[in-house]
Amino acid sequence: MKTYFEDMESLLRSVATRLASALVCCVCALALDSSFDISQYAHTAWTIREGFFRGNIYSIAQGRDGYLWLGTEFGLLRFDGNRLTPWQPPAGQSLPGSGITKLLVTNDGTLWIGTYAGLISWSGGKLNRYPEFDNQFVASMLQDHEGTVWVGTLGSPFGRLCAIKNGDVKCQGQDGALGRMVASLYEDSTGVLWAAAQSGLWRWRPGHPTQYAMPTTELKDLNSGDQEGELLIATRDGTRQFAHGKSEAYAILGGKSVGTNRLLRDHDGGLWIGTIDQGLIHVHHGRADLFSKSDGLSGDVIFSLFEDREGSVWVSTNGGLDRFRDLAVSTISVKQGLSNDAAWSILAARDGSVWVGSRDGLNQWNNGQISTIRRGSGQPDDAPQSLFQDDRGHVWTFTSRGLGYIERGRFVLVNAAPGGQVHSITGDNQGNLWLSENASLLHMRGGHVIEQIPWSRLGRQESASVLLYDRDHGGLWLGFWRGGGVSYFKDGQVRSSYTAAQGLTPNAVSDLQLDHEGALWVATQDGLNRIKDGRIATLTSRNGLPCDTVHWTMEDDDQALWAYTACGIVRIAPTKLNAWVADPKRTIEATVWDAADGVRLRSTAASFYGPRAAKSADGKLWFVTGEGVQVIDPRHLPFNKFPPPIRIEQITSDHKMRWQNLLSEAPANLRLPRLTRDLEIEYTALSLAAPEKIRFKYKLEGYDADWQDAGNRRQAFYTNLAPANYRFRVVASNNSGLWNEEGASLDFAIDPAYYQTNWFRALCVLAFVAMLWTVYQLRVRVLKRRHALLQQHQSEIRALNEQMIKAQEAERMRISGELHDGVLQQITSLALRLGKVRRQAPPESEDKATVSALQQDLIQIGTDIRHISHELHPALLQESGLPAALSSYCEEFSKVRGLAVTCETDESVNELSPGAALCLYRIAQEALGNAAKYSEAKKVKVQLTRANGTVCLLVSDDGVGCALDQLGKSGGLGVINMRERVLQLRGSFEFHSTPGRGTTVKAEVPFRPAP
To answer: What is the pLDDT of residue 961?
Structure first.
């Protein structure tokens, strides 16, 4: 019965362990591609020598918030992939020792810190010390599937193994059974707890502890073996494999014994072995490769190995800290078997192999294995240049000795042409080959030159950089170096050409490709061109490319367009590409992989031979850069599925730190001092794979109207913020462009100074209102005074006007009297005397006629003077009233001026006061005079009416009207006089004159009867 329950307990533990492992795998879904060598991963090193750390890092852990914790011999560090921050315990507390030996983050997020002299845990801003471990060296820690924390120590005289659960500590080993130290702990997939102690390997749980003797007492680390149920043991003498109670040497590096310090099995099954003094070993797919200090590792002594939740592997050494992560673009170099890193042409054969032409031989890659055809295998003395595979499957290459093909692993020379250079080779399905040679275009068949076409015949002075046979139309496309341009050659003639004059981007053509629609893509140093049906559309940095220089293009199996540019590999999705083709003016959206993704950037073409890129049968894209061969798999691109956790790290104002999140979360009522001038907020995103590619946007609610794009900057700066409540928000994207839209936020407030408070503002408003009221009252007084002065001036002006008018009338009466009594009497007397002379003259005398004419002139002058006298002093106005005087004047005016004037008067106006009557009479005189002088009128109508207590005088004509330039801005002196007369009588005056429509004068005065 006991055995049955023990078996059931073991089974349940196994299930629980597997479930926990599955959950962990879900959390850490990313992992390094185990098919790569270490040198093919992205490697970054932070070294002690460069000042990143003070000493060795002995342990690495990752918190639930994403920070990487580093336990060093000088204390605890927190790392966000960009900046290291020393961690200090709360005031009044301290670590048991400054040297950190072991770190563990448990499922609840608690950070366990083992030191040279004890153990503590950190959770929720609280530090918990375990006195049972005081003065004990913590050598190992592990949390099992039940949540129990196991701690192994180095002691004197004996080490212990302790279990901590719910704060209760139970230790074993005081009897010396474990020896001086428990160096490592490991729980396998079945829930069995293993302990590597000085006394040997122990199967600790479940059941009674069982000891297995080892050939060495220096066990370093434990991890899973290659098969289920196997265990790997790191020892000073090498790695051992344990299964079924027995251990044996684990063969790596050709069976060579390598002292091992640490073991890590990543989530893709790859095994990482940290050696004692030879660097890092990676075991994958049955083979192992070594990466040491000579390869760029920070040091050869490995202290710790750790895989973070994004799949990056971290390695601490005696020289610093290293990170390895997957790259979108991998590199195949001499380390993977390439004969030479100076590769300049590449060809993907139809059988799935890839051929690489390099400086010292032709390489064939097939299923991960590389073989090389060199001189000893029949290769000519010089390296292969351009490559081409014909329809029969022959791989052709050209060297300085001539053209040949590969057959059964040997080079067969078919045409000797010593000293030549061929930049590109292409061919058709009839066995014809076309070669771009320095001096001419060679047309070959069966290894023989059947046509040699000088470049001058094609209108060129230099060779073509690339050749491309168009199988759909049977012609040959040629792209050129100097001056650029593309030509279409068919049946011995150039059928069409495209240069800068037709809209093609200038400079050298580096690549030609035909897509599935038959469009020709032309890669140049100044952009990417698409030619279809004679139309050219261009992609440059102005409409979507990251930069202008394009080395080659390729269409993948999903019809996406790939381009290798001077600033990275570009992918344009089919939908985006089709949208741009439909409207080339729009900006295209593209995904870019740059140096951070493993791309070797080149400002110019990697070689002068082609092809420089190829697509293999499995859909991968291969290309040469002059530094090995690079490969990208469009269908298996690494994508970081973890939105980066975002943390606001600290806030500083006026160069003083106000809060930092090392110890606690930001308080809900974080307040900054009054008159804060310079504010700096530091934030970070916890994506450790490629921190340099993280992008941030932030917004200060209450100040910023929209999100601010900060790029990869991790600080926000504000100056002279007003006192208020603010919320700072920040979001970020990881290296794959995945955004954490929720982000992080921090609420804070800036206290106001006394003069920034509401009560102070209210007092200021009241004072301002009082000041405005005072100013208003002063202004009212000034305006009243001005108004009184204006009225006084207006009264004085009216009085002066009245005096002037009265003086005018008096002067007119005086002049009228003098004319009538003086001049007119003298003229009359002269006329009578001339009449007497005329009668005395002989009847037929000429003098009689002269005297008679002179007499008539004097009579007419007298008539005119009499008319003027009447105008100056209308006696009829005083005797008979305004209606009669106005009618008489109109009748006389019509006779004298020869202008038809009709006059309609109301006899009731006869009772009008003399002053008003004289005013209207003078206005009528002025209006009729203006009509005769300016309007060229044929008819004038004068109306005098009385209604509603007013007398109205209306004078209108049918003339051409009076233009403003004739009357002036004020309406002319006569109009001014008319207006002034009416205003003196408290009346109204209107003057309307439109060119071509006549003139109307209207004067209206109150009716005041004569006294």
So the answer is: 80
User: Do 734 and 663 lie in a common domain?
Assistant: yes
- Answer whether residue 491 is part of any domain: no
Nearest to 514 by CA among 410, 431, 426: 426
Domain carrying residue 1000: 882-1011
Which position has the token pair 């003639």? 493
What sign does the CA torsion over 981, 983, 988, 989 have? positive
pTM: 0.71
pLDDT at 27 over 50: no
**Final residue of a structural domain among 693, 726, 756:** 756
Query: What is the C-alpha to C-alpha distance for residues 172 and 208, in angstroms, rounded to an integer?
Result: 12
Q: Give residue-wise pLDDT tens across range 28-49.
A: 334 566 678 888 899 999 999 8
Cα-based distances in Å from 634 to 99, 559, 619: 47, 11, 7
CA-CA distance, 351 to 367, in Å (whole number)? 11
Whether residue 665 is found in the same domain as residue 602: no
Q: Which two tokens stand for residue 373?
A: 């055809």
3-state DSSP assignment of residue 866: helix
Structure tokens at 551: 């080395």
Do 915 and 976 lie in a common domain? yes
Do the strands 182-187 and 57-62 form a parallel or antiparallel pair, or are they unpaired? unpaired
- Asked if residue 666 and residue 591 are part of one domain, the reply reads no
Tell the burial category of 183 from Cβ atoms under 10 Å away from its Cβ (0-12, 13-18, 19+). Answer: buried
Decide if 607 contacts 624 (C-beta within 8 A): yes
DSSP 8-class letter at 912: B
C-beta of residue 527 within 8 angstroms of C-beta of residue 538: yes
Same domain, 543 and 682: no
Q: Are residues 590 and 682 in the same domain?
A: no
Q: What is the distance between the alpha carbons of residues 412 and 399, in angstroms, rounded to a whole number?
A: 12
Query: Which position has the token pair 């900006």?
Result: 587
- Terminal Cα-to-Cα distance of the chain (whole angstroms): 147
Tell me which amino acid residue 600 is: R
Does residue 960 lie in a domain region? yes
- Angle, helices 758-818 vs 846-872, to 10°: value is 140
Q: Are residues 153 and 222 in the same domain?
A: yes
| Residue with tokens 């209308």, as numbered in its chain | 874
Is 951 within 8 Å of 1004 (Cβ atoms)? Answer: yes
**Domain boundary pick from 711, 734, 756:** 756
Residue 829, CA distances (Å) to 105, 561, 826, 865 in order: 142, 122, 5, 14
What is the rounded radius of gyration, in angstroms, for the C-alpha atoms of the chain?
A: 55
Per-residue burial over 453-473, b if 16 or more Cβ lie within 10 Å, else e, is eebeebebeebbbbbbbbeee
DSSP 314-358: EEEETTEEEEEE--SEEEE-GGGT-S-S-EEEEEE-TTS-EEEEE
Any bridge partners for residue 469, and if so which?
A: 476
Q: What is the pLDDT of residues 913-922, one digit of tens each?
A: 877 888 888 8
Residue 824 — φ and ψ, nearest 5°? Answer: -65, -40
Q: Are the C-beta atoms of residues 315 and 266 closer than 8 Å to each other?
A: no
Instruction: Output the domain CATH number for residue 212.
Output: 2.130.10.10
Task: Give, to the nearest 10 degrees, the angle between helix 846-872 and helix 824-840.
Answer: 160
Q: What is the DSSP string of 536-567?
A: EEEE-TTTT-SSS-EEEEEE-TT--EEEEETT
Look at the chain and report how many structural domains it folds into: 4
Residue 817, domain member (yes or no): no
Nearest to 854, CA basis, from 837, 876, 869: 837
Amino acid residing at 917: A
Provide the CATH number for the domain around residue 971. 3.30.565.10
Assess if residue 174 is contained within a domain: yes
Same domain, 681 and 544: no
**Single-letter amino acid code for the residue at 665:** E
CATH number at residue 520: 2.40.10
What percentage of the chain exceeds 90 in pLDDT? 54
Cα–Cα distance for residue pair 665/662, rounded to 1 Å = 8
